[in-house]
Amino acid sequence: MKNRRNFLKNSALLATGLAVSAPLLAKSESVNSKSPDFPGIIFTQKEQGRWEGKAGSHVPVVTVKGNMLTMQTFHPMTEEHYIVRHTVVDKNGKLLGAKTFHPTDVRAISTIELPNGFHGKLYATSFCNKHDFWLKEFSV
Ligand SMILES: [Fe+2]
């Protein structure tokens, strides 16, 4: 149980650290849209790397209604294989919301409230315990 807690804690810290670095990735992606700065570490719809074919169940799907943002990763949630954490970060690296999941959660879905009148670029991240760190860049 202690190892499991440590794994979750370390995974959450890794996900947060990578999410904070997302703005750097976005800048470089605009220069070279073919490959992210962190190949093999950060995966996207376009750059699935060693997890080719896994984007559909790992890239978070984002919907925004008013100032409520919902993100869902359409991924199984089992004790052995599940989504560990979601984050939403703005272009300045500010964490706007995060949710850590437990394998007993039925779905990897999270909702955050955006600042009133927010418009701009955001980064949604989803971390799988087996298929690593996935990023979706979008604008509101
Ligand atoms: Fe996975």
SSE order:
HHEEEEEEEE
Number of strands: 8
Structural class comes to alpha+beta
| Ligands, ions, cofactors | fe (ii) ion
Contiguous runs where pLDDT drops below 50 for at least 5 residues: 6-10, 12-35
Return the CATH architecture: Sandwich
Provide the fold topology.
Elements: H1 2-20, H2 22-31, E1 42-43, E2 61-65, E3 68-73, E4 83-90, E5 95-100, E6 108-113, E7 121-128, E8 132-139
Parallel strand pairs: 1-8
Antiparallel strand pairs: 2-3, 3-6, 4-5, 4-7, 7-8
Bound molecules: fe (ii) ion.
Detailed description of the structure:
The chain is α+β, with helices and mostly antiparallel strands. It has one domain (2-139): Sandwich (Immunoglobulin-like). Helices cover 21% and strands 35% of the residues. The protein has 2 helices and 8 strands, in the order ααββββββββ. The strands form 2 sheets. A 5-stranded mixed β-sheet has the order 1-8-7-4-5, covered by helices on one side. The longest helix is centred in the first third of the chain and has 19 residues, at 2-20. It is globular. It starts with a helix and ends with a strand. 26% of the residues are buried. It binds fe (ii) ion.
Feature tags:
alpha+beta; 140 residues; 5-stranded mixed β-sheet; globular; 3-stranded antiparallel β-sheet; Immunoglobulin-like; binds fe (ii) ion; 8 strands
Task: Give a quick summary of the entry.
By secondary structure, the chain is of the alpha+beta class. The chain has a single domain (2-139), classed as Immunoglobulin-like, CATH 2.60.40. Helices cover 21% and strands 35% of the residues.
